[in-house]
């Protein structure tokens, strides 16, 4: 539930920030009557995301075991791709996201209400669909079907509360540090999701080595301990992983984490032009 809570918090705060930027732009420019179109776009995007999550959760149960394992493996790989793209995109575009959204909204206002709905919808639906597929991939293998739902709900509610407080300046958060640390944690979560996807491919017979374990500490591993549940939920640690699962986790987790945390080079400021003497 911890990993799914983190997904809900991270994705939810991104959605909340996007919506708050659009709302603040209309409020500060004395265009409050247009807020209904923004909320309409947000509502449609939320409904589509929830419907997509329900389709993933309940539609797969109709498949055969092999096809179900293949679908879950593909979903895991897609989720890892989304996570990787999202954390690097946010690191690169966070500073310019506000001005870009305000520019799109200004252009949409000139077109009409349908364009305003479209801007709000497109700004939210991408994050919503990402959240749906990440939730589905991270919730695979959960023995208690209610815990993933509780985790994602708590994460989204926390994000809404934080976004509301940020909007009214009741609380201040260093968003750069927040997205950096949550991004690093999501890299570890994504490594676990990829490991689960490799295991599904082995279960479906696409990849070999299902019975070839890298190590086995099942005899000394307490499955009910809190740290065991935390490691299993966050990084999908299992006491007897296969060789391919272990290689997949290490091959993705370590290099992506290093690249993500590697400090970016700041561009050198151009030299100021020489001042001309006053006449």
From TrEMBL:
InterPro entries attached to this UniProt entry: FTR1/Fip1/EfeU
Top-level taxon of the source organism: Bacteria
TM spans (from-to): 6-27, 34-58, 70-90, 111-129, 149-171, 178-198, 243-262
Membrane topology listed for this record: Multi-pass membrane protein
Pfam families given in the database record: FTR1
Keyword entries, A-Z: Membrane, Transmembrane, Transmembrane helix
Location(s) in or outside the cell: Membrane
Primary localisation category: membrane
PANTHER family, A to Z: IRON TRANSPORTER FTH1 (PTHR31632), PLASMA MEMBRANE IRON PERMEASE (PTHR31632:SF2)
Family that this chain belongs to: Belongs to the oxidase-dependent Fe transporter (OFeT) (TC 9.A.10.1) family.
Designated name of the protein: FTR1 family protein
Source organism per UniProt: Paractinoplanes ovalisporus
Taxonomic path: Bacteria, Bacillati, Actinomycetota, Actinomycetes, Micromonosporales
